[in-house]
Amino acid sequence: MNRRSPNLAFLLACSLLAALMNAVTGYAAAPSAAHENDRPPWAGSRLEEGLSEGWLHGYADGTSRLGKSITRAEFVTFVNRAFALTASVPVASPDLHAGDWYAGEFAKAVKAGYIDADGGELRPQQAVSREEAAVMIAALLKLDLTGTDVSAFKDGDAISGADRGAVAALLRKGILDDFTDGSAGASFNPSEPLTRAGAVSMIYAARESNPSGG
């Protein structure tokens, strides 16, 4: 099969990615050269696939900003689209309103069981941390959380006890391979905001590990 080169794929991603995000979210921000330069080696092919399947979107100025942190609202939107989640339930939260572009996305996430909404704040505009994202993906895939081996990360002790099972489960499934840098002793930095590149990696790997979608 004739495949585009990584560079061509990345350029295609950057050009197409943007209009989609603004159309869906109405969000646009000033471009950042630092964000655009932070491009992992796998970005081209995964961006291309995300775009072609319609679950990945970018910014109205033609940038993808892989090094930019991703909000909780953006993350659940990408997850919902990547896993074709459409069912929803009513959600009551003091920081979620019917007119918000992401209201329906959180309603889908709650229905799918990877966001817990019991009347508390959902913090849609807050950056999602690496640890929080791991918990969401583990819940979505309904993974076994009984294991707690996170020794692949040298800062495993920094992962909260309540969330260690989720991170360990993703490690076992290979979903966090990009975060280990292919070698022992990498840092997970659990409280660090997840970047858009990290979100693409995690969601892509989760899909690959769960091809049935269920």
TrEMBL record:
<feature type="domain" description="SLH">
    <location>
        <begin position="89"/>
        <end position="151"/>
    </location>
</feature>
<feature type="domain" description="SLH">
    <location>
        <begin position="30"/>
        <end position="88"/>
    </location>
</feature>
<protein>
    <submittedName>
        <fullName>S-layer homology domain-containing protein</fullName>
    </submittedName>
</protein>
<feature type="signal peptide">
    <location>
        <begin position="1"/>
        <end position="29"/>
    </location>
</feature>
<feature type="domain" description="SLH">
    <location>
        <begin position="153"/>
        <end position="214"/>
    </location>
</feature>
<dbReference type="InterPro" id="IPR001119">
    <property type="entry name" value="SLH_dom"/>
</dbReference>
<dbReference type="Pfam" id="PF00395">
    <property type="entry name" value="SLH"/>
</dbReference>
<keyword id="KW-0732">Signal</keyword>
